[in-house]
Specification:
The structure is a homodimer of 112-residue chains. Chain A is α+β, with helices and mostly antiparallel strands and 112 residues long. The first copy, chain A, is built from four helices and three strands. The mean pLDDT of chain A is 92. Chain A binds a DNA duplex (30 and 30 nucleotides) through helix 1, helix 2, helix 3 and strand 3.
DNA sequence: TCCTATATATAGAGTGTCGATATATAGACC
DNA sequence: GGTCTATATATCGACACTCTATATATAGGA
């Protein structure tokens, strides 16, 4: 008997995982993350601004990322790095997402 | 460039797909569907009553399932069957869900 | 009599994304 | 100069959805 999945949490965690995964390499600012995720998923996952920034604040609050203000070309940016805590969380969450899909796939399997 | 995913719709579609998939075999009433899905996913996917019945009504409204009232052991039940429309929808949706998770998995890949 | 299981229903709470709007700089174009 | 697009962040309110709690009703076991 596995833990029941909270679907609202699943959506939240998918978005968080996408952002954290984008930060595995170098630190990036929010706008860059959105552009990268959209490119890497071929447009399948996109971030509305009203979605992206609250999530970044939530992640920073939970110390899964840490941000520093920068100035580039006269524009201010907040550049985020993945913390150790965030990296651990990403590993656990990736496993969870995969398990969820495995189960879902088994049940829907044979279709399509 | 694929279509951007609406995550709220994804949750809705996962729940709907789980219900429709449970009806691929024989017709079932709501309570039975919930029990079966929970058993077949080893407790990973469960339906709260407040979630289940509104979804059944939504599916019936959209003619993806059709329900008939029955009496068994003095209890009234509404037994639902999968319609052709529902079967088609399930096929399409299963493909969509699988594609979504495939993309997600590719991005999170290497973790876990 | 009380509790649990079966069976459906709905109103309201909670939580999340989404859309719109605001601010600000910079470059391209006319 | 003025407009548009791109970059860059922020927040409020609308919307959609699940989740909790409550209601109703029958049946069986302790």
């Amino acid at each position: 008997m596995t833990e029941p999945i909270d679907l609202q949490a699943l959506v939240r965690e998918i978005n968080e995982a996408l952002i954290l995964a984008a930060l595995r390499g170098e630190p990036k600012h929010g706008y860059q993350i959105a552009v990268d995720v959209e490119r890497e998923t071929d447009g399948m996952f996109t971030f509305q601004h009203g979605t992206l920034y609250p999530i970044l604040h939530r992640l920073e609050k939970g110390r899964r990322i840490s941000g520093k203000w920068e100035k580039a070309d006269g524009r201010r940016r907040k550049v985020y790095s993945l913390t150790d805590r965030g990296r651990e969380w990403l590993t656990i969450q990736s496993r969870r997402v995969r398990a969820t899909f495995g189960t879902l796939d088994a049940l829907l399997g044979g279709e399509g």
